[in-house]
């Protein structure tokens, strides 16, 4: 069904893998479309409680396929039509999304990793804000997320110099949730994703929503929407289960609702 990605659901986790390894998983409009279809399916499926985005072969994603770009194109329109909707979809998805950065993440591939909620980073991976090297500005939400994650000064530095950031440096900057050795990669990524999938994922979705909202609201407005969020969380079975398990001194069994 998919031509440029692979997609499967296993143990509550949707696994979405970019699948153009010869081009280091560079984005085409087809790939962009398929990623959005897979995220939409994951967001609406009761079977899915966490989503992993990763890449086949030695790269995570090398950004826009440069062989697909020519001078006549309006890059702004490509962003409005293809990349913007994908980034908004990731931000508004009320399920945790993990980027399993198996190799280099460059250009919009870096932006994709930044837009995810967690970044598991292979020790052989790197991040590259490649845009400036071809005379462009970081796009697909890159500056928005990068400055929030690493701070203004580092975001500017990475964007202006366009140099590779290896995994150990990425971890120091706060870009990596965790750096993982090559030999443990599959095992640890699976364990991390399944651990998240077994948490109260409805509450995690609300945490995503309200953390993002906090940047755009006054404290007074924020406290009001937060109260609504807690009202919703308070109605979940997971809330009752969490409190009951605490009182009964046992491990809670969450269902994501
Ligand atoms: C590629 C690519 C690639 C095609 C490697 N495309 N083939 C832009 C415009 C439009 C609107 C929307 O917004 C954007 C956003 C962007 O993403 S702009 C930034 C685009 N990305 C880049 O500028 C990164 C370009 N790639 C690189 O700098 C290097 O390939 C990296 C550092 C990622 C990896 O370097 P190496 O490990 O040395 O691999 P390589 O360069 O030898 O690449 C292997 C193959 O993959 C090679 O093909 P070939 O047929 O010669 O084996 C590359 O041509 C191909 N490839 N990136 N983005």
UniProtKB/TrEMBL annotation:
InterPro entries from the UniProt entry: ClpP/crotonase-like_dom_sf, Enoyl-CoA_hyd/isom_CS, Enoyl-CoA_hydra/iso, Enoyl-CoA_hydra_C
Which intervals of the chain form a coiled coil? none
PROSITE patterns named in the record: ENOYL_COA_HYDRATASE (PS00166)
Looking up Gene3D superfamilies in the UniProt record yields:
2-enoyl-CoA Hydratase, Chain A, domain 1 (3.90.226.10), Lyase 2-enoyl-coa Hydratase, Chain A, domain 2 (1.10.12.10)
Q: Which Pfam families match?
A: ECH_1 (PF00378)
**Which protein family is it in?**
Belongs to the enoyl-CoA hydratase/isomerase family.
Give the protein name, as stated in the record: Enoyl-CoA hydratase/isomerase family protein
């Amino acid at each position: 069904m998919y031509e440029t990605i692979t997609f499967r659901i296993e143990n509550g986790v949707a696994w979405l893998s970019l699948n153009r390894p010869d081009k280091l998983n560079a984005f085409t409009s087809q790939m962009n479309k398929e990623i959005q279809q897979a995220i939409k399916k994951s967001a609406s499926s009761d079977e899915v409680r966490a989503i992993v985005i990763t890449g086949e072969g030695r790269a995570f994603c090398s950004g826009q396929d440069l062989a697909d770009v020519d001078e006549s194109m309006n890059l702004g329109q490509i962003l409005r039509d293809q990349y913007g909707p994908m980034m908004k979809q990731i931000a508004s998805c009320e399920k945790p999304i993990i980027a399993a950065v198996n190799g280099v993440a460059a250009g919009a591939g870096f932006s994709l990793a930044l837009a995810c909620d967690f970044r598991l980073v292979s020790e052989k991976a790197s991040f590259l804000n490649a845009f400036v090297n071809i005379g462009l500005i970081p796009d697909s939400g890159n500056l928005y997320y990068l400055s929030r994650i690493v701070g203004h000064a580092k975001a500017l530095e990475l964007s202006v110099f366009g140099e590779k950031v290896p995994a150990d440096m990425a971890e120091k900057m706060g870009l990596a949730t965790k750096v993982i050795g090559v030999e443990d990669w599959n095992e640890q990524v699976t364990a991390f994703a399944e651990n998240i999938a077994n948490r109260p994922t409805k509450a995690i979705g609300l945490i995503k929503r309200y953390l993002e909202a906090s940047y755009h609201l006054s404290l007074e407005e924020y406290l009001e929407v937060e109260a609504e969020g807690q009202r919703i969380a308070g109605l979940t079975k997971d809330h009752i289960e969490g409190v009951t398990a605490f009182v009964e001194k046992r491990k809670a069994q969450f269902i994501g609702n």
